[in-house]
Amino acid sequence: MKKLLSILLALAMVMALLVGCGPSNSTPPTSGDDSNTDANSGAPTVVSQEAVDEALAAAESAGLPDASGDAPQTIIFSGSSFQAMSEAEELFKFMMEDLSGGSVKIEWHPYNELGDDLNVVTNVQFGEIGIGISSPAPLTTMLPNMSIFDTLYMINDQETAYEVMDGEIGQQIDKDVEALGMKVIMWCENGFRNLTCNVEVTGLDSLKGIKVRTMENSLQMDAWKALGANPTPADFSELYMSLEQGTLDAQENPYDLIVANKLYEPQAYVIETNHLLHTLNMVGSKATYDALPADIQQLVSECAAEAHQYARQMADERIEGQKSTIQDAGLEIITLEPAMIQEMADVSANVYDLVREQIGTDLVDSLLAQVETASAAE
Asked: Which of 141, 112, 107 is nearest to 125 (CA)?
């Protein structure tokens, strides 16, 4: 029955693609576009032309192969809902089209235009979408190992996260993803998730009974329960209204999403809990990727790497402005003391045994050892 439902979902998405593959009319969640030109028309709408030119110069200096004589092909590319990532996605599109000499056309659908992350991952797996950007959450149903990136306070800084993604653990997960018919093209992130709330949170006692909207993820829900909160999964499309009406007291997301969707407006505080790095991955259909000529595969890797560096830079640069937007709206941003963060990490570590049950002791203990080594080196 599950297999049948997956097939029906894939067929439905194929029909959606057939009727929806014209120029994108989606509107970014935040302002600041450089022009009103359509995302598939050949001129930047989100990322600046200056950034495109700089990235192209960097890539060309790497001595990439000439792919201009390759057979023309189109790759459907599903983007995320994050502004910083959308800029990087468009950068990837322009680089691929320019550096391939026009032999590759990237049909970019930004801002989850082709459906939520689960729909995108499913259709990447079936080959109906060539490349998609998703959080790890939808992949955990197929690949429990991904849960290590959805566990509160397991990874506490960006550098360690990238060491894990690029090291033995990430490489093993990449192999597991390939066994599912997909290929991890790059790992990236959009900053740490923080709590917004109508209650001033200064300690664990402040969290008791707070209705906090979480993703429908059992490990995250168990961690918030351990912290004393009342985790309540809710559809993201209904989140603002639920906060406004008071049916939810709090929610957690990275700054980029908080500001882009104005989730701060119905709230009184932002508490910098930094409890979870919001990781994302660019995954491709393995069948689509394997069918690409070797020179185009090399372009995909190089363009993805440049886009990733740009996304991280933009996310970091944007945070101070986002904080100012929140403070100008009258909210107080609370920076928790390191001792409080450590206390929250110690309490939420109660779910590590559940993670071990899901993905095995060796992987979890290997990750914790790597994190501990990184912390000792600081």
From this structure: 141
Q: How far apart are CA 214 and CA 231, in angstroms?
A: 6
CA distances for 2 relative to 9, 116, 142, angstroms: 11, 19, 12
Choose the weakest-confidence range: 33-42, 74-83, 219-228.
33-42
Q: What percent of the chain has pLDDT over 90?
A: 53
Q: Which tokens sit at 331?
A: 């909210």
**Residue 280 φ then ψ, to 5°:** -135, 155
- Rg for the chain (alpha carbons), in Å? 21
pLDDT at 268: 98
Burial of 32 (0-12, 13-18, 19+ CB in 10 A): exposed
Q: What is the pLDDT of residue 100?
A: 94
Of the candidates 193, 186, 178, 188, which has an alpha carbon nearest to the alpha carbon of residue 143? 178
Angle CA 143–119–79, to nearest 5: 100
Q: Are 236 and 81 in contact (CB under 8 A)?
A: no
Nearest to 112 by CA among 261, 229, 2: 261
Are 218 and 317 in contact, with CB atoms under 8 Å apart?
no
Residue 60: how many other CB atoms lie within 10 Å: 13
Cβ neighbour number for residue 289 with a 10 Å cutoff: 19
Token reading at 203: 């300690």
145 DSSP 8-state letter: G
Q: How many CB atoms lie within 10 A of CB 236?
A: 16
DSSP state of 279: E
- Are 53 and 71 a contacting pair, CB within 8 Å? no
Confidence at 38, pLDDT banded by 50, 70, 90:
very low
Inter-axis angle of helices 2-20 and 117-125, nearest 10 = 100
DSSP assignments along 154-189, one per residue: SS-SHHHHHHHHHSHHHHHHHHHHHTTTEEEEEEEE
Integer CA distances (angstroms), 176 to 13, 168, 183, 332, in order: 25, 12, 9, 43
> How many Å separate Cα 97 from the centre of its chain?
24
